[in-house]
Structure formats: C-alpha cells, structure tokens
Amino acid sequence: MIAGCRSARVVAPPELTRVSPSASYGRLVIPPPRTPEKSFAANPWEPTVAARKWRYVVLHHTAGEEGSIASIDSAHRKRVDANGNPWLGIGYHFVIGNGHGMGDGAIEPTFRWQEQLHGAHAGNDDYNQYGIGIALVGDFETGVPTPAQRESAARLVQTLSRAYDIPADHVVPHRDIRATACPGKNFPLSEITYAAAHQSYAALPSAAHVGEHSGSLVPVGHVGHDTPIHPSLVFSSRSP
User: Fold this and answer.
1) Tell me, what's the pLDDT at 48?
2) Cβ(166)–Cβ(208) under 8 Å?
3) What angle is formed at CA 115 by the lines to CA 194 and CA 51, rounded to 5 degrees?
4) Which is the most buried residue in 15, 37, 174, 209, by most CB within 10 A?
5) Side by side, which strands form the sheet with 56-61?
6) Are the C-beta atoms of 233 and 183 separated by less than 8 Å?
7) Cβ neighbour number for residue 82 with a 10 Å cutoff
8) With b meaning 16 or more CB within 10 Å and e meaning fewer, what string describes 158-183?
9) CA 84, CA 64: separation in Å to the nearest integer?
C-alpha cells in the first residue's frame, strides 16, 4: 500500500460549522485620534531680574511688510518723547516675526523685557509703565498674520497672562488706549483673548477666516451681521 501524498484515496474534508455574522461581527472600530491640547503653562521668557508689576498686555503690529528687532530698534532710536528726550530704543517688549526679517512665528524678547523696563508703545503712561507691548510684524489693515504668528501670539499672551495674573479683559489692542487706526480690522483678537482666558487653546477655531470688513474671526460658513465683532491687533508706526 502506498500511503501519504501518493495515495489515490480521496477523503472529503470535515464539514465546517458556520456562524451567522452579527451586524458588528468582524468590524474593527478604531476611535479617532485624540487631538492633543496645546498647553503653554511653562514660561520660557521668565526674566532673570525681578519682574515688573505687569497689569496689561498691549497688542500692536508694525504696519510694515517686513521687520526685525534690529530694524525697529534703529527706527525707534530716531524718535523723541513728549519732552524731547530720545527713546532708549525699540519700544516693545516682544516682537513676533512673519518670515520677512525674522523667522515666521519667531518670538523674540527685546532689551526692555530682559531688563524689565517700561515700554514706549502705548501713548499712555499707565499702559507704558505696566503694559507688556507685543508687536507682530506685518500690516493687518491690508493683510493678516500668518498662522505661525497667530499661534505664537496666543502662546505668548497665554503664558504672560498666567505668569503675571493678567486677566483676559486686560489684553487690549492699541486702539482701545489711544485714538489710532491700531489695531486695524484684520487680526482676530478673539483668538488672543481666548488663549489668555484658558489653560490651553486646543479649541481655537482652525478653519476660520477673517471678516472682510468687521475684523472678526468667523467660522467658515457662518458669516453674518449677528457674528460678534472683535477689534484687531495692529501697531501704529507713529506710536510714541
């Protein structure tokens, strides 16, 4: 007898028991990935000297398409205050770049922050003495901040608000302090104040655009007159 693979005998396979599939049988359900929250609790800009008694954050733009701390400092040193005294240099505490003169979204502290000096940006003594001046490079009357600038501004303002106990309603655009076009119509201030009021800003609207005339941040598909209007962030190049 020849056995094994050479056997001519055919053996029927055993009958298989079939299981009727249920509606969910064999379905692999993968939950969507959790979007990590962008939390900015740490303060990488903590000064090495005693902190000033900060009470406000004042938001500006440079009203120019490009710029850097060095170029702004050079321009500000040519100015004089109301008493005819020359400025010490750049009037802001922080500058956020747009990729033209500084890295896109780069946050750079100035000597005023490093030495915890008063600002020269608000045209109001109280806000100069106790307001942290933040300028974004760009002209937001005609353009908008880059996405990197928006995220950096939210990060910086939230960090400073937490570190120095500055409430969200003390995060103000320049035009709320002085009669000026600053801050302009195209920067979504609501993003910045939201960041100041929350531990993280994971819920910041990412699919949004700026209203053409209102300056408000409006979710796509929800443009209308009932949309809250928020002022913008713009720096007047004539700021004292």
Assistant:
1) 93
2) no
3) 55
4) 174
5) 107-109, 94-96, 131-136, 56-61, 171-173
6) yes
7) 8
8) bbbbeebebebebbbbbbebeebebb
9) 26
Q: Which residues contact 145 (CB under 8 A, 6 or more apart)?
A: 61, 98, 136, 138, 153, 187, 233
Q: How many helices (H) and strands (E) does the chain have?
A: 5, 7
Q: Is 103 exposed, middle or buried (0-12, 13-18, 19+ CB in 10 A)?
A: middle
**Contact (CB, 8 A) for 86 and 74:** no
Could you tell me if 134 and 54 are in contact, meaning their C-beta atoms sit under 8 angstroms apart? no
Architecture in CATH for domain 50-219 = 3-Layer(aba) Sandwich (3.40)
CB count within 10 Å of CB 138 equals 30
Is the CB of residue 182 less than 8 Å from the CB of residue 211?
no
Rounded to 5°, the CA angle 42-186-92 comes to 50
Read off the DSSP letter of residue 24.
T
Residue 18 one-letter amino acid: R
Nearest-angstrom CA–CA distance, 179 and 122? 11
Cβ–Cβ < 8 Å for 149, 96: yes
- Report residue 231 as tokens: 């002022």
